[in-house]
User: What shape does this take?
Amino acid sequence: QVIDDVISSAFGSAGQRCSALRVLLLPVETASTILAGLAGAMGELDIGDPALPDTDMGPVIDRAAHDNLQIHLQQTTIKSGLVVQIETEQKPGFFFGPALVQITSLACIEREVFGPILHVLPYEAKDLDGLLEELAAKGYGLTLGVHSRISSFAERVRQKVPVGNIYVNRSMIGAVVGVQPFGGHGLSGTGPKAGGPHYLFRFAREQVVSVNITAQGGDPELLNLI
Assistant: This one.
């Protein structure tokens, strides 16, 4: 379940969703197993024309986005090391092979880059609270995903990382409007949630009209009674 949800969250829409998974925290006890599973699942992705029903991942939006991803991957590799990237066939379009980078610290990530690059950070249980505080300090507050069968653990993570939408034991993409109002704060937006009770007011303009009826001789309704 974790591998399926990570693959869809990180690489769905070529990782160009605002809610896409950028950083995956894994306990050291299971990190190697999950990483091996992710690498295998990435190799099974069908990368090609998004108009075809068999395609799992299409290209990124333009050359600037592609080049930006390439630069980011190179810089992150220098800081960390382990990289798994799926090669793509030469075809028209700006295709960028999905990549997994094992980082040593959240300091390796200085800004959000939209695309199919997943940063993985294994952690010791004793370091989790500090790591979550460091993650919150990054200033992004849109989506957070937690996979755990222990509800108290999910609540512990929720308390440490203030975000607009939290998903427990499911993917982080595909919020249903009206059921899961979507929006964040900090560097991830400050307005009402899309689909929330206050969203419609963002598209309205409040206007007040005041008329001095004495300027026309009094209240027209009273004059009509004569």
Remarks:
- Strands lie at 23-27, 83-85, 99-102, 117-123, 140-141, 143-146, 165-168, 185-186.
- DSSP finds six helices and eight strands in the chain.
